[in-house]
Design brief:
Structural class of chain B: alpha/beta
GO biological process, one term (chain B): amino acid metabolic process
Protein name (chain B): Ethanolamine ammonia-lyase large subunit
CATH superfamily of one domain in chain B: Aldolase class I
Number of strands of chain B: 17
Shape of chain B: globular
Largest interface: A-C, 62 and 61 residues
Radius of gyration of chain B: 21 Å
Largest sheet of chain A: 7 strands, mixed
Chains: A alpha/beta (486), B alpha/beta (453), C alpha/beta (310)
CATH topology of the largest domain in chain A: Nucleotidyltransferase, domain 5
CATH class of one domain in chain B: Alpha Beta
Enzyme class (chain B): lyase
Number of helices of chain A: 14
CATH architecture of the largest domain in chain A: 2-Layer Sandwich
Oligomer: heterotrimer
Shape of chain A: elongated
CATH topology of one domain in chain B: TIM Barrel
Radius of gyration of chain A: 24 Å
Subcellular location (chain B): Bacterial microcompartment
Distance between the termini of chain A: 37 Å
Strand content of chain A: 25-35%
Largest sheet of chain B: 9 strands, parallel
Number of helices of chain B: 21
Helix content of chain B: 40-55%
Number of strands of chain A: 22
CATH architecture of one domain in chain B: Alpha-Beta Barrel
Strand order of the largest sheet of chain A: 16-22-21-17-18-19-20
CATH class of the largest domain in chain A: Alpha Beta
Number of domains of chain A: 3
EC number (chain B): 4.3.1.7
Distance between the termini of chain B: 65 Å
Chain lengths: 486, 453, 310
């Protein structure tokens, strides 16, 4: 087999808008006929992009799951896509945490209505990375020496991802978005997100629900918010601007050479100047103004950073989710096709040193330590408690393979006796050999799934799709945390 | 046709033209393997003596591989200018050799005569030439061709940069490419031998090289040396290819073993006319090498020098931009040691030049031959002196994909410096603009690949 | 909410792991001290006593062949980090710098050293203890001597009469799988890789429930000696593990040629090949496992080479 197409879907349910796309990814053989098979995604085509729907809400901040389901059903019909043909993809549920109280409900509903493989919300970090990919920042970073940051600004949050030489190196999320402050047609403030109160106070800005607000006043809030975010992104100031950050703060300094802004607010930057309160409140929130002040900052050139136009604005995240979330594992693997797909498996990482590998007692202890950690972190299950990602092995001789497989299998059966499936992810091309060695020892209890050449980190979750042509496994790595080093 | 002679008191009677041609060759392990080589020096001289007295008409009238049986023979036959041939058909091979070497014959005279010669006649003269004869004759002929840029001018030594990678990693290819460019290598072509034989991979590499060329405005041409059918697929999918490549053999059967025939080459030629990205008019890149016909049992008892010459007869039909004899790649069963490799390199270069072809040479060896890097230094200098159009540049001569050694970026810089040769004019201008070369010498900046990052 | 929690837990775990790995060198940081101690305690429990059985003492002796040094020699590169990126992307000898238009002495000597290793591989012999480890007996082709082997590939394709007699005497006839090992153009490829490729291949055959005939070693073998062996032993499938023509990156690269019902007159397109098996190339253990898969598919499809669907 030289090539094969798979269909992938991306769904982005945001605070203000919902969109979906369907793409097809072409898997091509990327190995010579004289070497072990290796497949890669060689082409990504956008098949269908839905219009931008308003996210249906129940009350003020609860997403209407049934409403989302209805939208998707209609879009699938229009796209003429059958659920069974979807092999990969990702769903992003964005926005403020408050809107996510029924996230579980939505996930289940989507699992039923968006194809078997596609599931689960991704965290803000993955969202930022996918938006950065969709906006073209990742690709762009391969061509420059410095760092590029893309910030995707939607209704509730802004997700930023830093890329360097083709790799995402850090992410950060802000309470910055078009719908954090809402207005009616009479210039009356109808909503101020509680998430920005601390920042407002620190800045000495006052804005309250019920207040009639002038263009000058609201413009100042918008400008301060835009500048705080830019201060933080460029490292100019992080004390006060840090109050806008959702979750962990950035742990390093990342001198930024280039900047792109995507998302709905990124799109609004292209709009006409905002000159009156009517211009501000045309969507019932201050989104247009936020876009406008960002555009002004870009034109003023206050920040020592090169602003570029993103490849995508409002659809950056959904395009990233649909087209860029899937990877392909190495093609010599050890699997049981009937056990796939598997979803949402957390990663435990076993990082070995040459010294540990050369010393059986040390290796034994390392494996014990990681399994004990897994035992405490994850519930007992007859399924898959975690996927063990092994790195640092380097060259693996047959003798070393035997030692490793013995440690991994013996101790697994000791600590996770009830688990019926063991999942191992190797860094280097050795999954078939290791899987085979483990299977010969375990004899079906547990079953072994062993794949390789997928990069995972602590805090990642992983989905493994159904094998294509027997041994090609689509993988979605859901990065929820970033190890903030290059 | 006389097939008999006496040397040092011993009489030799040769069976036919094939036997005379084979035994007149300098010693080659390939001819021995085929069982057609002269048994000793005396027999070799006898064969040369008989060959020297044959007329060109003798050679044409006694085809070793008749046109009715072989399409390469047909291409060669059809390429002969009858008027010119009729003027010289009664010349002996010795007379032809002396004409080519004489001061009376200028470059244009030789080029005119060559249009009346068959590949076998050209091979015959090579068999009567010493190494220095081959150099002297070839040095008289410059075949200039143009794709995006022109190479082959007097005083120019161009080079292919060959940034191969063991798994076609595009970044890895780029790394070696940058290194080569920083030494002033790459004016003939940026050419990659791929490991992966898919159109996707070929397209990726073509696209990457084109992007680098565009970004730095490099006046050269790109090529990925996959099988011609794979390149055609990639080109039809929109891959930017300035040159199209194929290995050639000197017989129809040999070409079939490569998975090609004249019809396929015609088809590719047509495609390049329509969808190639270069200015032209020359857009073919051919590779050849003594011994390939024997390895596919497609030599019909004909010696490897003659078969090689027939490759050039076929190549001539397509007006290629570059032709490269990969002289030492095939292994010790065809060319055993440095003596044989050096001889073959000079023969091929001369025969190609006499065919009117833009000849380059991959001055190279594999590790199971009795050859080392010093021998490559020698052949490289000899060919540079003979006016070779281009040689191959590989990082420190070590090709990490094909597992053989060629000439290094340093070597080519040295050939140029020692013999006062220059890169192709447009490329040299670009090197000056980049600050890599000044007055034909590498600057302090040369050798740093990161200037392209 | 659940996610935020998971996220925090993971962050803590990541933190812990880092600290754990630093334990040997320095005391854990104050902030996570307690937690770390817990983990350490856990790993010290009696149940976690080392009980590792070492498979062969050689297992942990690193058979380190001299890895070529690869450091950039450019005195003032325009972009230093970029240079590292270039070097890690390819095994090609780049970033080597120059003196005038010639390479530096060290670079030149490195090349000569690697060439010497390659020539040694061609003219060397496979170590007897490597063959003994897998109880391989030796048969020879008609190659006679190395020079002749190089000049006359045809002679490396035919076994001596003595070799044929040995096969008939010592090998199982008509096996399902026949494994043959040969020096080919690199004896050191066999020395370096056999101990990893062969047992992994045997494990794979076991996993697929395939039976294996009597393996042996062919001295002075060419790939097509498979055909002659096929005539003698009539295996259903045959795999030959043979040393490749050495390069400078490695002189120890091995190929596996596989064939369904090998016999005289086979053409190259009827063979399936996995090449470039060595430490820095295709992993020997992974190759061994994959060869088993290919052989089982050959038996299933009763075909090899271009006709085999992988």
């Amino acid at each position: 087999m030289d090539e094969q197409w798979i269909q992938s879907v991306g769904i982005d349910v945001g605070t203000s808008t919902t969109k979906m796309i369907v793409s097809r990814l072409r898997l091509g053989r990327m190995s010579s006929t004289f070497s072990l098979p290796r497949y890669q995604i060689v082409e990504r085509q956008l098949l269908y992009a839905s219009e931008v729907h308003s996210t249906p809400l129940i009350g003020f901040d609860e997403i209407d799951a049934e409403g989302i389901g209805a939208i998707l059903q209609e879009e699938y019909r229009k796209a003429q896509i059958s659920l069974s043909s979807i092999k990969s993809g990702a769903v992003i549920i964005t926005g403020e945490t408050a809107s996510k109280k029924n996230a579980q409900h939505i996930v289940h509903l989507l699992a039923e209505r968006s194809g078997d493989f596609v599931v689960a919300t991704a965290g803000a970090d993955l969202e930022g990375v996918l938006a950065g990919k969709g906006a073209g920042a990742e690709k762009r970073s391969q061509t420059i020496q410095g760092t590029i940051v893309n910030v995707d600004i939607g209704g509730g949050t802004a997700n930023a991802a830093y890329f360097q030489r083709g790799r995402a190196i850090a992410t950060v999320t802000f309470h910055v978005g078009g719908r954090l402050i809402r207005l009616d047609q009479q210039d009356m403030v109808t909503y101020v997100s509680p998430n920005i109160q601390a920042w407002l106070s620190a800045k000495g800005l006052r804005i309250t629900v019920g207040q009639r607000i002038s263009l000058a006043e609201i413009s100042e809030v918008a400008r301060q918010m835009a500048c705080s975010m830019l201060d933080y992104l460029t490292g100019k100031e992080r004390q006060i601007s840090g109050l806008l950050v959702v979750g962990p703060q950035l742990r390093g300094d990342f001198p930024v050479e280039e900047l792109t802004v995507s998302g709905g607010v990124g799109k609004l930057m292209e709009g006409a100047p905002v000159r009156s309160m009517a211009d501000v409140s045309r969507y019932g929130d201050f989104g247009p103004l936020l876009g406008y002040v960002l555009q002004q900052e870009r034109e003023k050139g206050t920040y020592a950073v090169n602003w570029l136009d993103p490849e995508q604005t409002v659809r950056a995240t959904v395009i990233g989710a649909g087209m860029q979330s899937t990877e392909i594992s190495g093609s010599t693997v050890h699997i049981k096709p009937e056990l796939l797909p598997i979803k949402n498996i957390p990663i435990l990482k076993l990082e070995l040193t040459q010294e540990q590998l050369a010393n059986p007692a040390q290796l034994h202890q390392e494996v014990a330590a990681i399994y004990q950690l897994g035992e405490r972190l994850f519930d007992k299950t007859t399924g898959i408690p975690f996927a063990l990602a092994i790195s640092g092995i380097g060259y693996c001789s047959y003798a070393l393979l035997q030692t490793i497989s013995q440690e991994l299998s013996d101790q697994y059966r000791h600590y996770f006796a009830e688990s019926q499936t063991m999942v191992v992810i190797c860094e280097t091309d050795m999954a078939k050999a290791l899987g085979q060695a483990l299977a010969l020892r375990c004899k079906g209890a547990p079953e072994i799934i062993c794949i390789d050449q997928v990069r995972v980190e602590y805090g990642d979750y992983i989905d493994l799709g159904e094998p294509i042509s027997g041994t090609i496994i689509p993988v979605v790595v859901k990065t929820l945390a970033f190890d903030e080093k290059a | 046709m006389n097939t008999k002679t006496t040397v040092l008191g011993q009489t030799y009677q040769f069976r036919d033209l094939k036997e005379i041609f084979a035994k007149a060759n300098e010693d080659k392990s390939g001819d021995q393997l085929a069982g057609i080589a002269a048994s000793d020096s005396r027999e070799r001289v006898a064969a040369k003596q008989v060959l020297a007295d044959l007329t060109l008409a003798d050679i044409r009238n006694n085809p070793m591989l008749p046109p009715e049986e072989d399409e390469v023979s047909r291409v060669i036959e059809e390429g002969i200018n009858e008027k010119i041939y009729n003027e010289i058909k009664n010349w002996s091979v010795a007379e032809l050799r002396e004409y080519i070497l004489s001061h009376n014959a200028g470059e244009n005279d030789i080029k005119r005569i060559s249009r009346g010669l068959s590949s076998e006649m050209i091979a015959a003269t090579a068999k009567l030439m010493s190494n220095l004869d081959l150099i002297t004759a070839a040095a008289k002929i410059r075949n200039v061709t143009h794709c995006n840029t022109a190479i082959g001018q007097p005083g120019v030594l161009a080079a292919r940069v060959q940034p191969n990678h063991p798994s076609d990693n595009v970044q890895g290819i780029k790394a070696a490419l940058y290194e080569g460019l920083s030494y002033g290598i790459g004016d003939a072509v940026i050419g990659i031998n791929p490991v992966i034989d898919t159109a996707d991979s070929v397209k990726d590499i073509l696209t990457m090289t084109k992007e680098v060329m565009n970004k730095w405005e490099i006046p050269t041409q790109n090529c990925v040396l996959a099988h011609v059918t794979t390149q055609m697929r990639a080109i039809r999918q929109g891959a930017p290819a300035d040159l199209i490549f194929q290995s050639l053999a000197g017989s129809e059967k040999g070409n079939n073993a490569f998975g090609i025939d004249v019809k396929l080459l015609d088809e590719a030629d047509e495609l390049m006319r329509k969808e190639g990205t270069s200015y032209g008019p020359n857009f073919w890149y051919f590779e050849t090498g003594q011994g390939s016909e024997l390895s596919s049992e497609a030599h019909f008892g004909i010696d490897q020098v003659t078969m090689e010459s027939r490759c050039y007869g076929l190549a001539r039909k397509y007006n290629p931009f570059i032709v490269n004899t990969v002289v030492g790649f095939i292994g010790p069963e065809y060319l055993y040691d440095s003596r044989q490799v050096i001889r073959a390199g000079l023969e091929d270069h001369y025969m190609g030049k006499l065919h009117g072809l833009p000849m380059g040479c991959d001055v190279c060896y594999t590790n199971h031959m009795k050859v080392d890097q010093n021998d490559m230094d020698n052949l490289g200098i000899l060919l540079s002196a003979a006016g070779v159009n281009f040689v191959i540049g590989v990082a420190m001569a070590d090709d990490v994909m094909l597992n053989y050694q060629s000439t290094s970026f340093h070597d080519i810089a040295a050939f140029r410096e020692v013999l006062g040769l220059r890169p192709a004019p447009a490329f040299e201008k670009w090197l000056e603009k980049m600050g890599i070369m000044e007055n034909g010498k590498l600057t302090a900046r040369a050798g740093d690949p990161t200037i392209f990052m | 909410m659940e996610q935020q929690l998971d996220f925090l837990v993971d962050k803590v775990v990541a933190e812990l792991q880092k600290k754990l790995s630093e334990l040997g060198e320095k005391a854990p940081a104050q902030a996570v001290e307690q937690a770390v101690e817990k983990v350490v305690e856990a790993s010290m429990q009696p149940g976690a006593q080392p009980s590792v059985e070492v498979n062969g003492a050689a297992a942990f002796q690193s058979d380190v062949s001299e890895e070529p040094e690869r450091t950039a020699q450019i005195p003032n590169p325009q972009w230093k980090e970029g240079l590292d990126e270039l070097l890690t992307s390819t095994p090609a000898r780049i970033g080597v710098w120059r003196t005038g238009v010639r390479p530096l002495t060290k670079t030149m000597l490195q090349l000569r050293r690697d060439h010497a290793a390659a020539v040694d591989a061609v003219y060397g012999e496979v170590r007897q203890e490597v063959l003994d480890q897998f109880s391989l007996f030796t048969v020879e082709t008609q190659y006679d001597n190395t020079e002749n082997y190089l000049k006359r590939p045809d002679m490396g394709r035919i076994l001596t009469d003595e070799g044929v007699r040995l096969l008939q005497e010592r090998c199982q006839k008509k096996p399902q799988v026949q494994i043959v090992v040969s020096d080919g153009l690199s004896a050191s490829a066999v020395d370096a890789n056999l101990k990893d490729v062969l047992p992994s291949l045997l494990d794979s055959l076991k996993s697929y429930g395939l039976s294996c005939g009597t393996p042996f070693f062919v001295k002075g073998g060419r790939v097509a000696s498979m055909d002659h062996i096929g005539e003698v032993l009539e295996p259903e499938v045959l795999v030959m593990l043979i040393g490749e023509r050495p390069g400078l990156v490695t002189a120890h690269s091995m190929s596996a040629y596989m064939c369904y019902r090998p016999r005289k007159g086979m053409v190259e397109s009827e063979r399936t090949v996995i090449s470039n098996i060595h430490r820095q190339g295709t992993s020997p253990v992974e190759a061994g496992a994959h060869i088993g898969t290919i052989l089982s598919k050959m038996l299933e499809q009763k075909a090899s080479g271009v006709k085999l669907v992988l």
